[in-house]
Description:
The protein is mainly α. Helix content is 70%, strand content 8%. A 3-stranded antiparallel beta sheet has the order 1-3-2. Helix 2 (55-74) crosses helix 6, helix 3 (83-93) packs across helix 6 (143-163) and helix 4 packs across helix 5. The longest helix has 45 residues, at 3-47.
Amino acid sequence: MSATATEALAAAEPLRKAGGADKAAEKNGKGGGKAAEKAAEKSAKRLRPPAAKSVGWALVQAARLHRARVGDRLAALDLFAGQEQVVQALAAAGSMTMGDLAATLRVRPPTASKTISRLAALGFVERRAEAGDGRIVRVRLTEAGLAKAAGIERIWDEVEAELLEGFDNKERRRLRKLLRRVARNLAEAAGVSGHEADHEMDGDEDEADLLSDAPGPDVPLS
Length: 222
């Protein structure tokens, strides 16, 4: 081999090695990318809560998000999440005893009493002794409380629309019925009263489902 050819080969050798190194790096890079993806997937699985597949977990997550969403809007009314339910119950009933209010909200009487005390300090509710029996105290909304009730209703309607986006009427009724059954089961397990009227509402939902499933007047019954 001539000296010139030998020199040419010698000059090309570094380039060949560099090309091989580039290919090796590219191959390692692809392999490293796949390894990183697998590691990320494993990490995501490890971060997933153990109870993620349970109904209770999904229910807690939905309730937490709903409470936060409502709470953000209630701040404009000088209310905290949870207080609005007391205002809504009183707005619907007119006046209630502490026992009736606690049963309606499915909470312990001391919890209901504490919330009423806070709302009374804000001037939204007032307590009066029952005529003829001073031992019984009834609670009702003040004029300021009634104004808050109207604002709360608007907030709940807005959040309800967000919550049920994409649900048709039948799905909404079915969801309400299932959640009432869940609440009844937990209330019975905890010994909390106030869920008896839910059976009547379930009956109304069943009747509505039957009507929605019934064929129209132009469809002959088989």
